[in-house]
Specification:
Length: 114
């Protein structure tokens, strides 16, 4: 049987029609799933990016918690607490004066702003 003989058969024509319909339906299904469905590929990628961003934020916050725990542990000592209060908040004891010394190279001058 030659190819021309196959093309003239009725079942071969039906087979080509059905296969083209199946390809059309499959193409429509794939397009629907990729672009229009509620679980589309676009939405899936957006959610994946958001998950990655939240994982990075989670890692950063865990590192901050560890640093804060170290600071809290350090500040449980009264001497360290006093040192921290003096350096950060410029607190003082009664009848004590605080002098803030600023060096010339750390001050902003008019020439630096220009």
């Amino acid at each position: 049987m030659a190819l021309k003989d196959l093309k003239t058969k009725k079942w071969f024509k039906l087979l080509t029609i059905f296969s083209s319909i199946y390809i059309l339906i499959l193409t429509a299904f794939v397009v629907w799933m990729v672009f229009f469905d509620t679980n589309s590929l676009r939405i899936h990628m957006e959610l994946k990016n958001e998950i990655d961003k939240l994982e990075k934020q989670k890692k950063y916050l865990k590192e901050q918690i560890e640093q804060d725990k170290k600071v809290i542990e350090k500040l449980s000592d009264p001497e360290e607490l006093e040192k921290f209060a003096r350096e950060q908040y410029y607190l003082k004891k009664k009848n004590e004066e605080i002098y803030l010394i600023e060096y010339e190279d750390s001050l902003k001058t008019k020439n630096d702003n220009n």
